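Give me the fold.
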Amino acid sequence: MSTYRPTDEELKVLRILWEKKEATVREVNEAINGLQEKQSGYTTTLKIMQLMHAKGLLERRKDGKSHVYQSLIDEQGTQSQILDKLMDQVFQGSASKLVLRALGSRRASQKELHEIREFLEQLEKDQEN
């Protein structure tokens, strides 16, 4: 399942499950509705999560009358796969173009800039060795 590209709706569910580790449909639906103006119905979220379970993206277990879901796909692996595809399709494989566009289009916090600097310094150290 490592090469599966989640849909936008599936990605919303996955982000919540990656953060919470596990959740019921109701918990996921409430979290989704807290993130967006247009409210998503419980049955819509239920159907998405049932389809994701059928595709092998989610695991579920019975807990009383509810099902508790967990992601079966890795957050970092999914992010890397989506980023690689974006970099190839939009930025002709150029990491620098992608990073410059990302930093130029949104204001980074001081904390983010500090993390980026530390990351770049570590990359430079790794290349020297």
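The first strand starts at residue 23 and ends at 24.
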